[in-house]
Fold this sequence. Notes:
- The mean pLDDT is 82.
- Strands 2-1-3 form a 3-stranded antiparallel beta sheet, covered by helices on one side.
- The chain is built from 1 helix and 3 strands; from the N terminus they run ββαβ.
- By secondary structure, the protein is of the alpha+beta class.
- It is flat, with a radius of gyration of 17 Å.
- Strand 1 (4-14) and strand 2 (19-27) form a beta hairpin.
- The chain has one helix at residues 30-40; strands spanning 4-14, 19-27, 45-53.
- The chain starts with a strand and ends in a 13-residue tail after the last strand.
Amino acid sequence: MDTEQTVYGLVRFDGEGRQVTEIVLAFENAHAADRHARQAGWAEYAVGPVRFPASVRPRATTVMAR
């Protein structure tokens, strides 16, 4: 598969410094992520796209002899 699929993530913040306390993946769309946060009673959160490459090629590695 050579395409990328976009899913959405939810980041929960806590306190004045907006410290990240929890990250929840993966939602089909931003509305689903927002709905989850509201149902969980989260007051401070952000929703945004998260992308996972569909095709991942491993990096070449070199084995070093001792």
